[in-house]
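#lab-general

N.A. 3:47 PM
ok so I finally got the sequence cleaned up, no stray characters, all 195 residues accounted for. can someone with queue access submit it? mine expired

B.Y. 3:52 PM
send it over

N.A. 3:53 PM
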Amino acid sequence: MPAALDEFDRQLARLTDLGYPVTDSVTRLRPLVEGLPASTVNPEDHIPFLLVVTGTSYEQTAPLMTLNGRSGFHVMDDGDVDVYRSIVDIPSGAYLLTDIDTGGEFCNVTPETALEAITACGRSPLTIDEGIALVTARPDMLRKNKCFSLAASRGKGQRVPAIWISDRRPKLGWCWDRNPHTWLGTASGGARVVP
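B.Y. 4:20 PM
back already:
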């Protein structure tokens, strides 16, 4: 599957160029892209895999997202970087997130309801790190009226982080768990793979 290996190399080069803490362990992920299972989601919203490198806060990585040459930004409250926690187990270091669905089917569905449907299918919602990695690697998947919540990261009360387009730029912010938005779905992935 040369195309998959080329895509892995492209994502790795992008992260390296942006200054992510890429270590030798990342290269051990490369052979794993050849054996990934077939997709189970809508092809329009699908990405086969995503290279995720943890260990950097969204305050540093949100500005690295781009859309049409415009840098991303975040509007999280001061101190929130220590508030948002993952509700799923996340590997440390680098890993592959597979079978990503940007969640277009969940537009106008509350994140709370979408989360129930996602987990019932044996899938996992995405974290803040994974959402930023997605837009960094594939800005084309952040589309007008098809943006996405990141329901695996939870903040104070009912806050659910999300990435959408604001002023033609990628914006990391948050919405309420029980508020639907016609332009905001809930992203998910099939598995997190480590070497």
